[in-house]
Amino acid sequence: MVDAFLVGCTEKFYEIFGENITGVYLHGSLVLGGFVPAKSDVDLIVVTEKPMSRMDAVQLTDFLLEQSGSPYPIEISVLNRRQLDEWQHPCPFDYHYSEDWRNRFLTGGSTYGEEREDPDLAAHLTIIHHSGCVLFGKPVDEVFPPVPKQDYLDSILSDYEDCLENVEVEPVYSVLNILRVYYYLEDERIYSKDEAGQWALSSPFSKTVVKVLKRRRGDDVSIADEELASFKRYYQEKIEASLHEKKVRVKGSVNVGD
């Protein structure tokens, strides 16, 4: 069913962009092996030869408002080749949509009309290089520049800061992404949410992680705020100690090692 959904999306993107489309690329949980049909997004990057037009944006928005969430939510960014010719971080983009932004689009707002920058793209493009899938178009190495490790780290640490703030509100997303950051700092390997959770089953917070993984699969499991707060303190200390040891300076996030 996911394959048919991806084919339908790709065909629609080609219908909208025509010969201007360079490629459609899949990243995120579907390529990392942690996709949960009832919860996970389908994560896509579309690259065009030239900047998309306003009409392209209108047609794409209409399609996404209709298709996203039926049955899988879509998170997508559209970039043009000029934005990728020379890597910069944060990376510029032409258009972005996710279900978190649905109301913005429904009330007349959008991300089209001015070039913006997204620090998350450093992480997305790193995953595309690591294990991304070409749904249509040119090979990954012909389209996407290499992303420096420092920019990838800055990207995931920016998300990590959000996770620290929201661990009690969004425990599944926050706990598993904090673990992904911790294990990346340990061995510079990119883990899926489920892989990071499995590794943490031998940690001092194995009981909390078991609950998180069960809730991720749809079980109604209670997780106390106190155990989430303890988890946060423990891994925040571990991560900041690791950053200090590596003398990492992170743009717009955590500065350590001065």
Automatic annotation (TrEMBL):
This is DUF4111 domain-containing protein. CDD domains: NT_KNTase_like. One of its GO terms (molecular function) is nucleotidyltransferase activity. The keyword Transferase applies. Pfam families: AadA_C (PF13427), NTP_transf_2 (PF01909). Coiled coil: none annotated. It comes from Halobacillus litoralis. Keywords: Transferase. Residues 16-66 form the Polymerase nucleotidyl transferase domain. Residues 142-217 form the Adenylyltransferase AadA C-terminal domain. InterPro entries: AadA_C, NT_sf, Polymerase_NTP_transf_dom.
